[in-house]
């Protein structure tokens, strides 16, 4: 009877995802600081590293896609050119139809890339700079989703939902019919008021 009671009191090894570090991680010296962390903390760090690897390097691999990336990017560039970060401007009128925080984040990122300066060798990173704030917000949203779902639904559900979350984001806006988009000249010839992206490339 005592032996049975003792066996019932012995803690059972956890089998949930992330409870134990993989052997190869424990053998790497500079990763041993992960050992004392909780499983939630370790998985949050791993997901952040995955997001960094997936999103950041290729943000500027393609030009701005019509119609909305050039549109909002140009409004942010106008903020820099006009020196007015309170009254967004688009073409010949005010542009108050979108929250200013998005435009401020893009403008701040474009300032780092010297998008609107004469000596702007870093201007080749304009596309990267325009998309960076949204990549960061998407990654933060995914991490918050993981923490919330981990505490409410379970770790496996949280991981699956978090890995799937970025695929529902707007980081990859669909191109216009025709596959590659209308291009600079096509955008300039549109009659619906959508923007020409030459201002960002000039």
**Which sequence of strands runs across the widest sheet?**
1-2
Shape descriptor: elongated
Order of helices and strands: HHHHEEHHHHH
Q: Helix tally?
A: 9
**Count of discrete structural domains:** 1
Unreliable sequence segments: 169-202
In percent terms, what proportion of residues is strand? under 5%
How many individual β-strands?
2
* Main beta sheet strand tally, sense and closure: 2 strands, antiparallel
Q: Helicity, in percent?
A: 40-55%
SS class: mainly alpha
The CA-CA distance between the termini, in Å, is 84 Å
Average pLDDT, to the nearest integer?
75
| Radius of gyration over all CA atoms, rounded | 24 Å
Report on the structure:
The protein is mostly helical. 52% of the residues lie in helices and 2% in strands. It has 9 helices and 2 strands; from the N terminus they run ααααββααααα. A two-stranded antiparallel sheet has the order 1-2. Helix 4 (68-82) crosses helix 5 and helix 6 (126-152) runs antiparallel to helix 7 (155-164). The longest helix is centred in the C-terminal third of the chain and has 27 residues, at 126-152. The radius of gyration is 24 Å and the shape is elongated. The protein starts with a helix and ends with a helix. The relative contact order is 0.14. Mean pLDDT is 75; it is low at 169-202.
Write the layout of secondary structure elements.
Blueprint lengths: L1 H8 L13 H5 L11 H17 L12 H15 L6 E2 L2 E2 L5 H13 L13 H27 L2 H10 L18 H6 L9 H4 L1
Antiparallel strand pairs: 1-2
Helix pairs in contact: 3-6, 4-5, 5-6, 6-7
């Amino acid at each position: 009877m005592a032996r049975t009671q003792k066996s019932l009191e012995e803690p059972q090894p956890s089998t949930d995802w992330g409870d134990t570090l993989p052997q190869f991680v424990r053998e790497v010296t500079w990763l041993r600081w992960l050992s004392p962390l909780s499983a939630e903390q370790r998985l949050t760090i791993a997901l952040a590293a995955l997001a960094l690897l997936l999103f950041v390097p290729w943000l500027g691999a393609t030009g701005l896609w019509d119609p909305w990336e050039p549109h909002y990017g140009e409004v942010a560039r106008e903020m820099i050119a006009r020196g007015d970060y309170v009254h967004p401007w688009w073409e010949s009128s005010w542009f108050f139809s979108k929250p200013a925080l998005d435009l401020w984040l893009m403008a701040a990122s474009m300032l780092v890339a010297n998008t609107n300066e004469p000596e702007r060798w870093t201007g080749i990173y304009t596309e990267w700079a325009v998309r960076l704030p949204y990549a960061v917000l998407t990654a933060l949203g995914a991490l918050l989703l993981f923490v919330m779902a981990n505490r409410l639904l379970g770790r496996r559900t949280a991981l699956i939902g978090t890995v799937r979350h970025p695929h529902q984001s707007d980081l990859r806006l669909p191109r216009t019919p025709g596959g590659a988009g209308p291009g600079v000249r096509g955008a300039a010839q549109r009659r619906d008021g959508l923007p020409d992206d030459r201002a960002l490339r000039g």
